[in-house]
Design a protein that fits this description.
Helices cover 26% and strands 41% of the residues. The protein is of the alpha+beta class. The chain has a single domain (25-169), classed as Lipoprotein localisation LolA/LolB/LppX (outer membrane lipoprotein receptor (LolB), chain A). It starts with a helix and ends with a strand.
Length: 170
């Protein structure tokens, strides 16, 4: 009986340590993100092309190419179907397919689910996500480190987010 209780206690201890590990972020991913943030913060302005993949339940993966131009707090984020422009005071969201422009105060982003380009690289600093390196791969001759973020809030609009970081740039 003592062996049985000891075995159950050991299994419980192992399982609880795995549960705690599952809620902690990857220290190696933190180092990669801190290095990227330091480099990003050293720029006065930034222009970059990117690819956004969205996977919605029961639908095909949607891939969009985009461009970001940023100068301080101001930025222009251009995608196939929308353009977001923030001049530091106002945010314009141009929904091309609807032929519609939405205008909000720039501080609207802080209260909404919209993640600004600046905030995207800082989400690892919040306590709202756990993250880990999920893949290191080569695409088009470029070595990439993929980091996956999962929100701790089960009611979040996002299930997971992944960013791929060019190892040459980091």
């Amino acid at each position: 009986m003592k062996k049985y209780i000891t075995l159950l206690f050991s299994i419980g201890l192992i399982m609880s340590s795995y549960a705690q590990i599952g809620e902690a972020s990857d220290p190696l991913a933190t180092k990669v993100l801190e290095k990227l943030k330091k480099k990003y913060d050293s720029f006065i302005s930034l222009e970059a092309d990117f690819t956004l993949e969205m996977k919605l339940s029961g639908q095909d993966t949607e891939t969009q190419n985009g461009k970001i131009i940023q100068d301080g707090e101001m930025y222009l984020l251009s995608l196939a179907d929308q353009v977001i422009y923030n001049n530091g005071t106002y945010v314009w969201i141009h929904l091309k397919s609807n032929k519609e422009v939405q205008l909000s105060d720039a501080d609207f982003e802080e209260e909404s689910e919209i993640i600004s380009p600046k905030d995207m690289l800082r989400i690892y600093e919040s306590n709202e996500y756990i993250y880990a390196i999920t893949d290191v791969k080569t695409e088009n001759g470029e070595k990439l480190t993929e980091i996956e973020f999962k929100p701790l809030d089960r009611d979040s609009e996002y299930i997971k987010m992944r960013i791929s970081i060019n190892r040459k740039d980091n």
